[in-house]
C-alpha cells in the first residue's frame, strides 16, 4: 500500500513558476514542480492568521516555540572559540577523527566486536542527508560489484520523502516501498512488513529506522527487530539503518542504537546514517556520520578509499565546528552527565505533551483510540488522519500537519494545546 | 562472503600523499611546498584577526536562532558573496538576475553547478556535452564533473612549458574548435597550478570567441583578494564577462581568503539572462541540494556574512587579505632574487610574473624527485610549489636546493 510521500521540508520555497523563460539558451526546462508538501509550506507562509500552528517542522521546539541549543553546547562553543590550539586547516575527507571514533562507539557500543576487529568505517559527513547520500553512492558503485547491482532499495511507507530523491541522485532508480504504518491500527503492521520484505529480491537494500521513525514516530520493538534480523539474514538483504535523531527517544544515545548493535552482533554487514543535530541542538551545524560495518577488516582500506573518492567530488571535506562540540562532550564523562540531564528534559517534555494530548482527546470524546500517542516516543507522531481531515485542519483551523497526517510533538505547547486538541476533534467529528 | 569483497583500492590523491610523506620525514630542514593553504612566516596556519573577532561576536550572540539554514543557505551570506564577486554596482545585481547558493566550499559549488548543468543544460544533449578544463588544472575538476555524470571531459591548452607562460594561441584555437555549447571551466584568477592568468586583453579575446561559439562560462574563483591583494582586480575577468552579457556560474570559495578551510564556506553565483530564468534555476538547484547535503552548515557562512555586511569589518578583512597576499608577493620577489644571485641557470621572471598561491617552477619530474629525496623539500611532481610554504627562515635553503636540482639533474 502506498501513501503520499511525507516530507519535512523546513524552508523549501519552490515557486510554481511557469516554464518558458529561456535559461541558458537552447534548454528546455521547467521550474521545479511543487509537491503537495511544498504547496503546503507555501500556504503556511502566506497564512496571516494569528492562530496558525505549524506542526510540520523538523527540529525540536522548546516550550517557547523556538529551536535552541543545549546550554552545554553553548558553553563548549565558547570554550572552543577561545582555544588557541585549534587550527584553520583542511581536514581529511573522512572528517574529524575524534568525532568519528565517538560516533562509531555510540552506535555500536564501546565493546563492539566489529570495532575491536577494526572492520568499521566511520565517515564524518555534513549532516544526515549527506550521510545518506554517501551511503547511497557507496552502494551504487561498490555494493556487489560483480553483479552490477543497481537496486532495488526499499523504503518504509511512509518515509521522509527526500530519501527517494537521495537514492535517485546517486543513480539508483529502482525504489520500492515496504508496508510500515497502518492507519487503522495506528501502529506498525509487522505481518505486512514481513510479507513485503519476504518477497524482496536477494541483495535488496532495506532502509530501516533504528529509532525515531520519521514521520510517524512508530518504532519497531526489540522483539520485532529480532524477527526482522532473521529475515534479513535468510533473504540476504542489506540493511541501511537510520538514526536521524539519536537519543531523542530514550535520552540515551546507545539505547536508540540498539537495533544497529543487534544487526552487527548477528554478523550482518550494514550502513548506518546518524545525526547529532537534535540531541545537541546543533541544527545549523551539519553534524552527521556514516557508519559501515564490514565482514572482514581486509576490506576496510579499499572501502575507505572509495568513500574518500566519493566525498572529494561531493563536498571535499565536512565542516568541523559542530563535530568538535560533539566530540568534546562525548569524550568527557563530566560533560556527558551534564548532557544527559539536558536531553532527559527534552525527552520528558515530549512524553508529557503526548500524555496531555491523549488525555485531552479522551476528555473531548474524540473518536478513535489514542494509546499509540504514549506508546510511541520521540519527536514525531502520526495521528491517523486522512487527507481530507488534514486539509480541514489547515484550511479551517490553520493547524498544519504533514499531508500524511503526521506532526511534530514538540511544536505543541501550553499556548496551543487546547486549540490543537479541539481542532483534531473537529476534524474527526465534522462531516466532510 | 562480504558484499564489498571486490572493491578495489582507489589511488591516493597526490597532494595529500605528499603531505603524509612530509609528516613522516624527520629531516630537520624539511620544507612542505605542497598543499594549498596559507602559512605565516613561522610556517603556522593563520586565523585572520577579523575572523577571530567575528567568531567571538557570534558565540556571544544570544539572539541567534539555531534552526536549520534554508536549503539554499543563509540569505545575507548569499547576497554578500555574490556582491563581492560581481561588485556593489553590478548592473546584473540591480536587474535582479543574480542569485547565490550557499555550498560546502568551492568543491560544493562546482558540484551543484555541474549537477545542474548535467540535468538542465543543452536540451537533450546534456550528458554528452563536452566539459573543458585547462591543461593543467586542479585535479578535482575532473572528478567533480565526472561524478556529476559528464562523460566527455577534455583539456584545453593553457600552459606553455617552453615559454613558461600562457599558450594563448592554443587556448583560442581550442575555443574555436570546441562544439557549440561546450562548458568551459575558467580560473577567475591565480590559476591553479600554474599561477599564470590571462591579461585583460587576453581575456577579451577569450570572451569574443566564447560568445561567438556559444560556449558556457563556469568560473572557479577560489582566490579573490588573495592573488593581487585587491578584490576588484582579482574579480576583473568575472565582471568583464558579466558586463559583456554572458550568463555564467561562479564557484566561489572563502577557504583561502578567510582562512576558513575546515568550515566549508562556498557560494555558487548564478548570473542569468533575466530574473525569471534565475528563479527557475535556483528552484532546480534547491532540489539538487536537497539530495546532497540538504541544509548547509551555518558557522562559516555567518562569519563571512557578518564580515562582508559590515563596512568596518569588511575593511578590516581586506587588510587581513592584503597581509596574506603581500607576504606571498614578498616571497616571490625574494625567491627570484636569490636564484638570480646564485646564478641558477634559466630565467626566473615567471616566479614574480605568476600570481597567487602557486608557482609552476618549471622543474622537471627528475628534478622534483631530487628536491624531495635529497633535499627534503616537498613539491608536486608538476613542479608546482605553494609560495606560502616559503618563509624568511627557509627561503635560502629552498633557493639553494632548486639551484642544485637544476644544475645537477637533467
Model description:
The complex is a heterodimer of chains A (432) and B (410). Chain A is an alpha/beta fold and 432 residues long. Chain A has 17 helices and 13 strands. In chain A, the strands form 4 sheets. A 7-stranded mixed sheet of chain A has the order 2-10-9-8-7-3-4, with helices on both faces. Chain A has a two-stranded parallel sheet with strand order 1-12. In chain A, strands 5-6 form a two-stranded antiparallel ribbon. In chain A, helix 3 crosses helix 13 (321-330) and helix 5 packs across helix 6 (162-169). Residues 1-30 of chain A have low confidence and may be disordered. Chain B is α/β, with parallel strands linked by helices and 410 residues long. Chain B folds into 2 domains: 14-47 and 325-408, Aspartate Aminotransferase, domain 1, CATH 3.90.1150.10; 68-309, Aspartate Aminotransferase, domain 2. In chain B, helix 13 crosses helix 16 (395-408). The chains are: A alpha/beta (432), B alpha/beta (410). The interface between A and B is large, with 86 and 83 residues.
Short description:
The complex is a heterodimer of chains A (432) and B (410). Chain A has helices at residues 36-46, 71-81, 97-108, 113-116, 128-142, 162-169, 190-198, 222-235, 253-256, 258-265, 277-280, 300-312, 321-330, 333-364, 372-375, 387-397, 417-429; strands spanning 53-54, 120-126, 153-157, 175-179, 181-182, 187-188, 205-209, 238-243, 270-275, 287-293, 380-382, 399-400, 406-408.
Amino acid at each position: 500500500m502506498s501513501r503520499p510521500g511525507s516530507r519535512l521540508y523546513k524552508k523549501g520555497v519552490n515557486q510554481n513558476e511557469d516554464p518558458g523563460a529561456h535559461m541558458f539558451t537552447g534548454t528546455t526546462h521547467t521550474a521545479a514542480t511543487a509537491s503537495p508538501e511544498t504547496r503546503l509550506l507555501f500556504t503556511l507562509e502566506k497564512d496571516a492568521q494569528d492562530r496558525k500552528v505549524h506542526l510540520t517542522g523538523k527540529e525540536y521546539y522548546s516550550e517557547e516555540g523556538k529551536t535552541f541549543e543545549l546550554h552545554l553546547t553553548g558553553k563548549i562553543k565558547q570554550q572552543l572559540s577561545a582555544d588557541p590550539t585549534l587550527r584553520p586547516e583542511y581536514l581529511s575527507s573522512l572528517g574529524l577523527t575524534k568525532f568519528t571514533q565517538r560516533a562509531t562507539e555510540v552506535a555500536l557500543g564501546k565493546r563492539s566486536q566489529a570495532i575491536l576487529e577494526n572492520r568499521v568505517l566511520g565517515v564524518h559527513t555534513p549532516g544526515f542527508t549527506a550521510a545518506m547520500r554517501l551511503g547511497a553512492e557507496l552502494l551504487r558503485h561498490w555494493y556487489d560489484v560483480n553483479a552490477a547491482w543497481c537496486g532495488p532499495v526499499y523504503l518504509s511507507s511512509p518515509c521522509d520523502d527526500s530519501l527517494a530523491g537521495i537514492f535517485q541522485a546517486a543513480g539508483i532508480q529502482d525504489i520500492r516501498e515496504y508496508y510500515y504504518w497502518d492507519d487503522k491500527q495506528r501502529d506498525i503492521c509487522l505481518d505486512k512488513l514481513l510479507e513485503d520484505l519476504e518477497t524482496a529480491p536477494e541483495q535488496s537494500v532495506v532502509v530501516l529506522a533504528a529509532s525515531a521513525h520519521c514521520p510517524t514516530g512508530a518504532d519497531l520493538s526489540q522483539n520485532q527487530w529480532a524477527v526482522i534480523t532473521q529475515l534479513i539474514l535468510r533473504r540476504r538483504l542489506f540493511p541501511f539503518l537510520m538514526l536521524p535523531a539519536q537519543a531523542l527517544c530514550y535520552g540515551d544515545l546507545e539505547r536508540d542504537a540498539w537495533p544497529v548493535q543487534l544487526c552487527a552482533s548477528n554478523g550482518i554487514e550494514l550502513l548506518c546514517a546518524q545525526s547529532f543535530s537534535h540531541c545537541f541542538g546543533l541544527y545549523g551545524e551539519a553534524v552527521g556520520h556514516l557508519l559501515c560495518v564490514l565482514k572482514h577488516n581486509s576490506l576496510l582500506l579499499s572501502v575507505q578509499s572509495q568513500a574518500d573518492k566519493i566525498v572529494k567530488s561531493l563536498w571535499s571535506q565536512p565542516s568541523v565546528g559542530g563535530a568538535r562540540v560533539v566530540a568534546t562532550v562525548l569524550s568527557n564523562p563530566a560533560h556527558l552527565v551534564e548532557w544527559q540531564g539536558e536531553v532527559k528534559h527534552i525527552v520528558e517534555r515530549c512524553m508529557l505533551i503526548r500524555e496531555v494530548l491523549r488525555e485531552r482527546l479522551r476528555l473531548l470524546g474524540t473518536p478513535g483510540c489514542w494509546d499509540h500517542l504514549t506508546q510511541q516516543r520521540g519527536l514525531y507522531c502520526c495521528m491517523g488522519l486522512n487527507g481530507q481531515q488534514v486539509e480541514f485542519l489547515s484550511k479551517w483551523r490553520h493547524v498544519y500537519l504533514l499531508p500524511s497526517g503526521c506532526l511534530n510533538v514538540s511544536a505543541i505547547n501550553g499556548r496551543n494545546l487546547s486549540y490543537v486538541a479541539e481542532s483534531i476533534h473537529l476534524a474527526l467529528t465534522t462531516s466532510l | 562472503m562480504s558484499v564489498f569483497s571486490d572493491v578495489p583500492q582507489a589511488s591516493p590523491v597526490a597532494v595529500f600523499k605528499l603531505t603524509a610523506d612530509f609528516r613522516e620525514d624527520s629531516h630537520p630542514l624539511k620544507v612542505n611546498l605542497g598543499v594549498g593553504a596559507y602559512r605565516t612566516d613561522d610556517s603556522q596556519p593563520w586565523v585572520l584577526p577579523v575572523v577571530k573577532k567575528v567568531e567571538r561576536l557570534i558565540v556571544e550572540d544570544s539572539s541567534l536562532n539555531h534552526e536549520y539554514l534554508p536549503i539554499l543557505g543563509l540569505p545575507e551570506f548569499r547576497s554578500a558573496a555574490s556582491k563581492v564577486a560581481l561588485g556593489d554596482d553590478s548592473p546584473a545585481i540591480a536587474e535582479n538576475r543574480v542569485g547565490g547558493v550557499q555550498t560546502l566550499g568551492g568543491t560544493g559549488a562546482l558540484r551543484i553547478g555541474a549537477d545542474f548543468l548535467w540535468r538542465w543544460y543543452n536540451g537533450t544533449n546534456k550528458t554528452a556535452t563536452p566539459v573543458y578544463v585547462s591543461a593543467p588544472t586542479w585535479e578535482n575538476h575532473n572528478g567533480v564533473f565526472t561524478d556529476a555524470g559528464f562523460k566527455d571531459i577534455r583539456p584545453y591548452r593553457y600552459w606553455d612549458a617552453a615559454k613558461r607562460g600562457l599558450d594563448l594561441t592554443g587556448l583560442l584555437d581550442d575555443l574555436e574548435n570546441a562544439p557549440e555549447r561546450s562548458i568551459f571551466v575558467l580560473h577567475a584568477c591565480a590559476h591553479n597550478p600554474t599561477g599564470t592568468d590571462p591579461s585583460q586583453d587576453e581575456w577579451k579575446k577569450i570572451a569574443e570567441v566564447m560568445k561567438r561559439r556559444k560556449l558556457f562560462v563556469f568560473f572557479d574563483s577560489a582566490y579573490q583578494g588573495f592573488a593581487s591583494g585587491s578584490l576588484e582586480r582579482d574579480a576583473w575577468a568575472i565582471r568583464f564577462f558579466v558586463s559583456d552579457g554572458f550568463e555564467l556560474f561562479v564557484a566561489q570559495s572563502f577557504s583561502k581568503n578567510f582562512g576558513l578551510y575546515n568550515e566549508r564556506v562556498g557560494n555558487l553565483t548564478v548570473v542569468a539572462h533575466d530574473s525569471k530564468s534565475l528563479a527557475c534555476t535556483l528552484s532546480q538547484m534547491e532540489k539538487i541540494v536537497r539530495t546532497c547535503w540538504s541544509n548547509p552548515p551555518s558557522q562559516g557562512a555567518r562569519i563571512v556574512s557578518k564580515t562582508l555586511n559590515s563596512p568596518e569589518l569588511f575593511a578590516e578583512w581586506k587588510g587581513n587579505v592584503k597581509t596574506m597576499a603581500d607576504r606571498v608577493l614578498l616571497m616571490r620577489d625574494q625567491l627570484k632574487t636569490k636564484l638570480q644571485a646564485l646564478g641558477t641557470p634559466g630565467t626566473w621572471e615567471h616566479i614574480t610574473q605568476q600570481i597567487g598561491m602557486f608557482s609552476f617552477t618549471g622543474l622537471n619530474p627528475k628534478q622534483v624527485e631530487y628536491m624531495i629525496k635529497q633535499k627534503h623539500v616537498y613539491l608536486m611532481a608538476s613542479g608546482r610549489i605553494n609560495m606560502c610554504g616559503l618563509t624568511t627562515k627557509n627561503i635560502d635553503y629552498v633557493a639553494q636546493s632548486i639551484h642544485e636540482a637544476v644544475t645537477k639533474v637533467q
